[in-house]
C-alpha cells in the first residue's frame, strides 16, 4: 500500500471520526533526492481503538512513542506515533494519531494486547499525565518512585501537576533570572 | 530433595551493572522462575528542562542525555527541528554528520564488545578491544575537540569543518579498523569458548522481538531488517543505500542469541567504515551551516509554528524525537525515546528460564543505557587542590592540539 492507499483505508474505517488529516512530504538526500511520507491524522477519541486496529491490519507496526501534552485547558492532547512497513528501504511510513482526551474522563483502552512492548509507554503516560489505560495489567510506576504522592502528575499543567513545575512551566531561563528565581 | 526458591536482588548498584537499575530474580536451583525489572533510578527530567530553554540550548542539553551516544540525540534533534522549521542543511554538512555518527557507532560497539567479554570473564579480551577503541576516540577528539559530548551539530548544519589533515587521519583509521575487525572475527567469533558461552543464551525470536517493540542490533540479531538509515534515510545515508545487517545474510539464519548480536555488531563496524569511506571520498565543497547567525536562527524558530517527528539510528537502536514549536524560541513540547526504553522490555522474557550465570550476559546483551548518568567529575591534584573548569579546559585544548600535531607528522 502506498501513502494514499493507507489514508484511504483510514478514511474508510474511521468515517466521520477522522476529523482532519495531512500527508507530510520530506525530501531527503544530497545526490539522490527522494521523498519520505508521513500521515498526521486528527481523530475523535471514540475511534482511537479502531484506528489502531486499522494500522495493525495494514502492517504490524513499530510503535515510535506515545506522548501527551497538557495544553492547560480541559483536555489532554494525546499523540501516538506508529511506523508501518519498517524493514523496507525508503519504505517506512509514519502514521501519527492525535486526539483530545477530556480531563473529565482520562480513560483509554490499552494496546498492550496487540503489542506487549507498548506497556512501557502506557505506564509512563499513566504516571506522568494520569491517563488510565483499561486492560493494562502492570500499573506500577515506571520512572517515578513508589512513594510518589497520588494525584500528582509531573506533565500536568493544572492543579494536578507538581506545584513547582506548574509555577515555572513555559518560562524561559531569561524570565526566571529576571525575577531572581534561580533554582527553577 | 525438594528445591527451595531463593530471591536474588541485583542492583540498583551492583558490580555487574554499569548504571542503576534493579533486577529481582526468583530462582529454583540454577533456573530463574520469576523476574521483575525496576527502572527510573536515573530519571533527570531533561525533557522538562529543554522545554524552558531555547532550541540551541536544548540541542546541547540533548547531548547530555547519553554519554556514549552523545551524537545520537543531537542528530535526531537536528533532523526533527529541520523538518519542523523547513531548513535544509548544506550538502557538506550532510556528509560530515554521518562521519561523526559512524565514528560514534564504532566506539560504542567496541565498548559493548569489551563489556560483554568482561561479563563472561574474558578480561584480556576487554583490555585488547578497549585499547583498539582508543584510536576512534582520539579521532573524535581531533575532529570535534572532545572525546565525549562533541557539541559539533547545529540546526541546519555542523559547527566544525573537516580539514585535509582530518581526512588523512580518517583514512588511516579505516585501514586500522579493517585489520582490527578481521582480528576480532578470528578471536571472538571463531573462539569455541565464546561460542559455547553465547550460543542459545538470551535467545529472542523474531516474532517476540516484533511484539516487544525492540530496536537496533537487538531487533536485527533476531532477524528483523530494521534500521532507520535504511527505512527512513536522511543526509548522506540517502545516497549510500544502507542495508540493515542481519545474521541471516551472514550465516544463513538468525537465532537472535548473544552470539548473533555479537556478530551483528562486528559487521556493523565494517559497515560504518564503508559509510565513512564513501562520505570522505564524496565530500562536497561549500558551506557547513544553512543559517550561520544564531540570532537569525532563533528568530526563525520564534516565527515558526509546527511539529515534527525525527529519528536517527544510534548504535543501540533508534532514537526518536518529537518537537513542537509554537511561538517561543524553544520547543513547547519535546519528547525523547532512547533505544533502551524499548530494549529493556526484552529482559524479563529472556531471563525467565535462564540460568543465574547468564544474568550478566542477558543484562549486557542489549547494551543498556539507563537514561545515562549525570557526568560530573571533580578532579584533585595530589596536594588536594580541586582543579577548576579553566584548568581542565586548557588541558583538553592542549591535548587536542597534540593529537593534531601527531596527525600532521
Which key features would you list for this structure?
heterodimer, A: 184 residues, alpha/beta, five-stranded mixed sheet, 5 helices, 26% helix, B: 409 residues, alpha+beta, three-stranded antiparallel sheet, 8 strands, 12% strand
Explain the overall architecture.
- By secondary structure, chain A is an alpha/beta fold.
- Chain A is 26% helix and 30% strand.
- Chain A has helices at residues 3-14, 48-58, 118-129, 163-168, 173-178; strands at residues 18-28, 34-43, 62-70, 75-84, 93-102, 107-109, 132-134.
- The termini of chain A are far apart.
- Chain B has helices at residues 46-50, 55-62, 72-85, 91-119, 123-144, 164-189, 192-198, 206-212, 216-221, 228-231, 237-240, 247-251, 258-281, 294-303, 339-343, 347-351, 359-365, 389-408; strands spanning 5-10, 22-28, 31-38, 153-154, 157-158, 305-314, 317-326, 333-337.
- In chain B, a hairpin with a 2-residue loop joins strand 4 and strand 5 (157-158).
- Chain B is globular, with a radius of gyration of 22 Å.
- The termini of chain B are far apart.
- At the A-B interface, strand 2, strand 3, strand 4 and helix 3 of A face helix 4, helix 8, strand 7 and strand 8 of B.
